[in-house]
Specification:
Layout lengths: L8 E5 L6 H14 L4 E5 L5 H5 L10 E2 L2 H6 L8 E4 L3 H12 L3 H9 L1 H9 L3 H16 L4 E5 L6 H5 L1 H10 L1 H11 L15 H10 L1 H14 L3 H15 L4 E7 L5 H14 L4 E9 L9 H11 L5 H32 L4 E5 L8 H8 L8
Parallel strand pairs: 1-5, 1-6, 2-4, 2-5, 6-7, 7-8
Antiparallel strand pairs: 3-4
Length: about 375
C-alpha cells in the first residue's frame, strides 16, 4: 500500500542534509498523481522546494504547482498539488490575532519589539510555527493529504514538544517573578512599564537595559489571560500527531554516520506513541553495471580493453573497480541500516547525478512511492 494509505498527514523527519525536502515533495507529487488533493509544507530556509516545484512566489499561503508543466515532464496529475512554506513570524502573528481578547491587546503585542524578535529567534519557534500551521491547514479540511517537511533534528521530541516548550518559556518562573510585585493584588497593569517605579526594574535595567526589560514585561503582560487558549491549541496539536490520521516517515541516507541518528529518531517516535509508517533511504548508489553482475561486467571489460595501451586500459579498469567498491560498501551499509530499522518498511531512492533541485529531479524519484508494497 502507498505511504499515504489511510492517512491525512505524513511528517518527514530526519537529520539535516539527508534530503527531507526532496522526499517530502516526491511523496506529495506521487499522491497528487494518484488523485489526492495534496499539500506539501516545508520550513526549509534555503527554499529549495520552491525551486524544485517551479514556484516563483512562496510564503504563508498555499500555491498550486503547474499541472501543465508536470504534464510536459510526463506526470499527469489526477489531483491538484499545492505547496507552502510557513512564515514563522506571520504564523505567530495569526496565533496572536486569534487568541487576543480584543484589537487593542492584539496590536500592543504585535507592535512590541521584543515580541517581534522573540517570534523568530526563540528556540523552538520554527518547529512551533510548523505544527501550528499544520493544524490550521488540517482543520480547514481542504486537502486529502498534507506532507510536512520538518526541521532537521537528531531527536524526535525536539519537534513534538515544540508547542509545550514555547508555552513553558512564557510561563516560566523567571518571567513571572518580574511580574510578581504587581500581581499581588490580583491585577496586572501596564503601569508596570513605568520602569522608575520598580526596584526590580531598576536592578534588571542595569543588566539588560531598562527599555529591553520594559518590552519584555509589556509582551508578557499582553499574554496574560491568553495562556489557556495557547495550551488548548498545544493539546489539539498533540492529539492530532498521535491520531490514526498521522504517520511519520524517517528520512535517512546509507552513510554509516546515519545509523545512530535513525535509531534515536525511531525509538524516540515509538516512545512518544507515534506511528512510523516507513523509512526512506535517499541517495542509494546504483549498481555500476545495471543488472549485470560486477564480476561478469569486469571480465568483459578486461577483454574489451585487452588491445588498448597498458596505461589507458589500467586507468579504465581502476576507475570502474573503484565504482564497484563504492557500490559494494553502500550495499553493506544499507544492509546494516535495515537491521537498525527492524520491521519498518524501507523505500530506496536512487542517487541522482546532481542534487535534486528542479521538477525533473522530483519526477525521477516520485515513482518509488507509487509501489503497492510499502
Amino acid at each position: 500500500m502507498p505511504l499515504w494509505s489511510d492517512r491525512r498527514v505524513l511528517l518527514c523527519v530526519g537529520t539535516g542534509g539527508v534530503g527531507k525536502t526532496t522526499v517530502s515533495a516526491a511523496i506529495a507529487l506521487a499522491a497528487a498523481s494518484r488523485g489526492l488533493r495534496t499539500l506539501v509544507m516545508t520550513i526549509d530556509p534555503a527554499r529549495r522546494l520552491a525551486n524544485a516545484l517551479g514556484l516563483s512566489e512562496f510564503g504563508n499561503m498555499e500555491h498550486e504547482v503547474s499541472a501543465e508543466v508536470l504534464a510536459k515532464l510526463g506526470v499527469e496529475l489526477q489531483g491538484p498539488l499545492w505547496a507552502m512554506m510557513p512564515d514563522v513570524k506571520r504564523t505567530f502573528d495569526d496565533l496572536i490575532a486569534r487568541a487576543a481578547p480584543d484589537a487593542e491587546r492584539r496590536d500592543k503585542i504585535l507592535r512590541n519589539r521584543f515580541y517581534q524578535r522573540f517570534s523568530t529567534v526563540l528556540a523552538g519557534s520554527l518547529e512551533y510555527a510548523a505544527v501550528e500551521k499544520l493544524y490550521e491547514v488540517y482543520a480547514s479540511d481542504r486537502y486529502d493529504l498534507i506532507v510536512l517537511d520538518t526541521p532537521p533534528s537528531q531527536n524526535a521530541t525536539d519537534f513534538l514538544q515544540a508547542p509545550g516548550r514555547i508555552l513553558d518559556f512564557l510561563e516560566q518562573d523567571t518571567l513571572q517573578w518580574i511580574l510578581k510585585p504587581y500581581g499581588a493584588a490580583g491585577r496586572f497593569s501596564f503601569k508596570l512599564l513605568d520602569v522608575g517605579s520598580s526596584f526590580v526594574f531598576r536592578s534588571l535595567g542595569k543588566l539588560a537595559g531598562a527599555e529591553t526589560i520594559g518590552q519584555i514585561v509589556e509582551m508578557v503582560l499582553g499574554f496574560q489571560g491568553m495562556y489557556d487558549g495557547f495550551r488548548h491549541r498545544s493539546t489539539q496539536v498533540r492529539q492530532l500527531l498521535m491520531s490514526d490520521e498521522v504517520a511519520f516517515v524517517v528520512v535517512t541516507s546509507p552513510q554509516p554516520a546515519q545509523r545512530g541518528s535513525v535509531r534515536q529518531l525511531r525509538e524516540g517516535l515509538h516512545h512518544e506513541g507515534m506511528r512510523v509508517r516507513a523509512a526512506v533511504v535517499n541517495r542509494v548508489r546504483q549498481p555500476p553495471f545495471g543488472e549485470v553482475s560486477a564480476e561478469i561486467a569486469m571480465e568483459e571489460l578486461r577483454r574489451a580493453v585487452a588491445d588498448w595501451p597498458p596505461e589507458e586500459a589500467s586507468g579504465v579498469l581502476e576507475a570502474l573497480g573503484e565504482e564497484v567498491e563504492l557500490w559494494s560498501r553502500g550495499q553493506n551499509s544499507l544492509g546494516t541500516l535495515r537491521e537498525v530499522l527492524g520491521d519498518t518498511p524501507v523505500v530506496e531512492l536512487p542517487e541522482l547525478p546532481l542534487d535534486a533541485h528542479d521538477l525533473q529531479s522530483l519526477v525521477a524519484l516520485y515513482g518509488a512511492f507509487l509501489e503497492s508494497d510499502h
